[in-house]
C-alpha cells in the first residue's frame, strides 16, 4: 500500500496549521503541538507492541472526541489501530492493534 497522505499534519491530515517537530531524527509537520506530542507517544507504543524497530507512518483517519482510529505502517506492512487519549496529546490512554496476529 502506498497511499500515505502527503499533505498536512502527519497525524491527522489537517492542513490549517504548521508546527514542526523532530520525529525519529527528521523534522516533520503537524497542525499543532498536541498532534506532535500524541504522534510521538503513539509511535513509541506502536514500536513497543509490534517489535518494529521503527514506524514509518502513523495516521488517524477518524477522530471522535478522545478516541481515534487509523493505521500504522512499517515498510509495506500496515496495521489498523485504535487509540485513546486525544485531543491534547499529553497522554496515551490506550493503544490497540485491531488485527492481532
Ligand atoms: Zn494534526
Q: How would you characterize the overall build of this protein?
A:
- The protein has 101 residues and is α+β, with helices and mostly antiparallel strands.
- The chain has a domain at 35-97.
- Helices cover 18% and strands 38% of the residues.
- The strands form 2 sheets. The chain has a 4-stranded antiparallel β-sheet with strand order 3-4-5-6, with helices on one face.
- The longest helix is centred in the middle third of the chain and has 18 residues, at 33-50.
- The model has no long low-confidence stretch (mean pLDDT 91).
- The structure holds zinc ion.
- Zinc ion (ZN) binds next to loops.
Overall average pLDDT: 91
User: Secondary-structure element sequence?
Assistant: EEHEEEE
How much of the sequence lies in strands comes to 35-45%
* Rg from alpha-carbon coordinates: 12 Å
Strand neighbour order, sheet with most strands: 3-4-5-6
Rounded to the nearest angstrom, the distance between the terminal CA atoms is: 19 Å
Number of DSSP strand runs:
6
Structural class: alpha+beta
Overall outline: globular
Note the quaternary state here: single chain
Task: Specify the biggest β-sheet.
Answer: 4 strands, antiparallel
Number of helices: 1
Helical content class? 10-25%
Bound molecules: zinc ion
List low-confidence stretches: none
Amino acid at each position: 500500500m502506498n497511499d500515505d497522505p502527503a499533505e498536512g499534519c502527519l497525524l491527522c491530515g489537517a492542513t490549517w496549521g504548521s508546527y514542526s517537530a523532530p520525529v525519529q531524527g527528521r523534522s516533520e509537520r503537524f497542525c499543532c503541538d498536541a498532534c506532535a506530542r500524541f504522534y510521538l507517544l503513539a509511535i513509541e507504543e506502536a514500536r513497543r507492541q509490534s517489535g518494529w524497530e521503527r514506524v514509518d507512518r502513523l495516521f488517524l483517519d477518524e477522530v471522535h472526541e478522545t478516541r481515534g482510529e487509523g493505521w500504522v505502517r512499517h515498510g509495506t506492512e500496515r496495521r489498523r489501530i485504535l487509540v485513546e487519549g486525544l485531543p491534547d496529546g499529553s497522554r496515551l490512554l490506550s493503544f490497540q492493534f485491531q488485527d492481532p496476529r
